Amino acid sequence: MFSEANEKKLDEIITHYPVKRSAVLPALYIAQEEHGHVTDDDVRYIANRLDMRVNEVEEVVTFYTMYSRKPVGKYKLQVCRTLSCWLQGAEQIAEQIEHKIGCGVGETSKDGKFTLMEVECLGYCDLAPCLQVNFDYHEKVTPESVDKLIDGLKTK
Amino acid sequence: MTKVLTSRFHLNGRACDIDVYLQTGGYQALPKALKEFTPDQVIEEVKKSALRGRGGAGFPTGMKWSFVPKESKRPKYVVCNADESEPGTGKDRDLMRYDPHQMIEGMIIAAYALGARDNYIYIRGEYWYIKEILEKAVAQAYERGYLGKNILGSGFDCNLYVHPGAGAYICGEETALLESLEGKRGHPRLKPPFPAVVGLYGGPTVVNNVETLAVVPWVILNGGDWYRQLGTEKSGGTKLFTVSGHVNRPGNYEVPMGYPLMSLINNECGGIAGGKKMKACIPGGSSVPILTAEECEKITMDYESVAAAGSMLGSGGVIVMDETTDIFETTRNVTHFYKHESCGWCTPCREGTRWLYKVFERMHRYEGRPGDVELLYDLADKILGKSFCALGDAAAMPVQSAIKKFREDFERRIKLNVVQIQKAAD
């Protein structure tokens, strides 16, 4: 079950398509918004809600990189690693963040606040290097600006 | 230079509001199309414009539309491909966040031409804030009667829905996109049948890139001939290029088709950063063959000229690299991308990209063996033309072209290892 508001939202989204199954990606975003990651219960619930089999939902969740099946930090720090960002020093940005939050790529900081991820092209090539924090974009970041940003998030 | 698609960019996002869009000449093409054009006439006008698909393949748009059967038992669909994820490309991002109505208007006209009632914008999940901009713009278009039932009294009904992707590059491939929109993994479909005949939910479907659809209102408003003459004979109009990498002013620039690549780099982008020399350039997103600085001198930015130089105009993502760049490392970087993004459906691509990266990794650690450069080339050859969709080719072409043109950057890795082995033996 999702919150009442999100249930309504999902009902509305389902009307956009001739088959319910098309709403699976939006439904998974709702699950992730509510629980931080996609839980086993979410998978079963969405399957039931959209007339899908559990394994059909599972195969979708595991295909798309924007869903997590395991708990992640409150802030997902996603450093773009692809060419244009790499040319502008993306590797140093990732290293700086590792140092700052005390964990490596693919890991979550001890306080559970941050998960560091290296992701592929975010479409901000002309504004490189780019860091995405949850859904927020930060363009032309530097080791210094990233430091400040993380300090700010720590106190939130 | 004539600015077409970017004519509202200076408003810095204010054109997201329908009133500003209307004040600046927006929603004039749609009433004109509905009143003065039959659906077939719209298609003819687009054919005249010599507009070619801006997503990467460069297929003539009018021709693509004309493949859709007139009569169909199943509903027809127009789908906007806003899954922009070709490395080096960020043009659709700006087209949507600075002027969403332009693309929406183009989409409604396309839907009218093809007789499609329900239509979808498939936008990459990372562009969440842009998805919200689009949803707002769509809602405004409904309020003002540009979407919904009986648009402007024409009897034409049209709905538009915004659908998020979730981080898969392959969903930019049009049949994988349709699978994803149907709620499945983004695996490409076998072609034929092409989407124009059997597409979304089995109905005839046209999938067009954001930029392609954004051009449509201009073609209707000013005529196909007007649009065509902005560019070259075979590559009509203007095009947005995202320039990134080692230039002084990276950004999105709209220039006429046929504009010299070096003018784009030196004039629009202020030349190579730090006063350095250029070493190489990828002209159309990471999937296309790399060009040497010398090759770049001669080419103009249109489909024919870039193809004649042995590369492709692709999505228009221009990635510039200065003389200090190690082309082995840049190629390793893009190979990681294709390894990560291979959908796993077909063996040559799934296994081939992994093997490629494995060899890149050992060369990166200076553990390359004599013959590894040839091995890379051969591995790429085993993928090229043998994969289920174009992703395999996109992984193979950068590797082969980089080895052909910058072999010394690859050989250095092997030589340094040989030196180490000898030292150890001594």
Helix percentage of chain A:
40-55%
Could you give the order of strands across the largest sheet of chain B? 6-5-11-8-9
Oligomer: heterodimer
What is the percentage of strand-forming residues of chain B? 5-15%
What is the CATH class of the largest domain in chain A?
Answer: Alpha Beta
Following the backbone from N to C, one meets helices and strands of chain B in this order, namely HHHHEHHEHEHEHHEEEHEEHEHEHHHHH
> Which band does the percent of strand residues of chain A land in?
5-15%
Task: Assign the CATH architecture of the largest domain in chain A.
Answer: 3-Layer(aba) Sandwich
Most extensive protein-chain contact, per-chain counts:
A-B, 43 and 56 residues
Strand arrangement, major sheet of chain A: 2-1-3-4
CATH superfamily of the largest domain in chain A: Glutaredoxin
Determine Rg of chain A (CA atoms, Å). 18 Å
The N- and C-terminal alpha carbons of chain B lie at a distance of 65 Å
Number of strands of chain B: 11
Draw up the topology in text.
The complex is a heterodimer of chains A (156) and B (426).
Chain A: H1 4-14, H2 24-35, H3 40-49, H4 54-63, E1 75-80, H5 83-87, H6 90-101, E2 114-119, E3 131-133, E4 136-138, H7 143-155
Parallel strand pairs in A: 1-2
Antiparallel strand pairs in A: 1-3, 3-4
Helix pairs in contact in A: 3-4, 6-7
Chain B: H1 18-23, H2 29-36, H3 39-48, H4 61-66, E1 77-82, H5 91-98, H6 100-114, E2 118-123, H7 128-143, E3 159-164, H8 174-181, E4 205-209, H9 210-222, H10 224-229, E5 238-245, E6 251-256, E7 259-260, H11 261-268, E8 278-282, E9 291-292, H12 293-298, E10 300-301, H13 303-308, E11 317-322, H14 327-341, H15 347-364, H16 372-383, H17 390-405, H18 407-425
Parallel strand pairs in B: 1-2, 1-4, 2-3, 5-11
Antiparallel strand pairs in B: 5-6, 7-10, 8-9, 8-11
Helix pairs in contact in B: 2-6, 2-9, 3-6, 5-6, 6-9, 14-15, 14-17, 15-16, 15-17, 16-17, 17-18
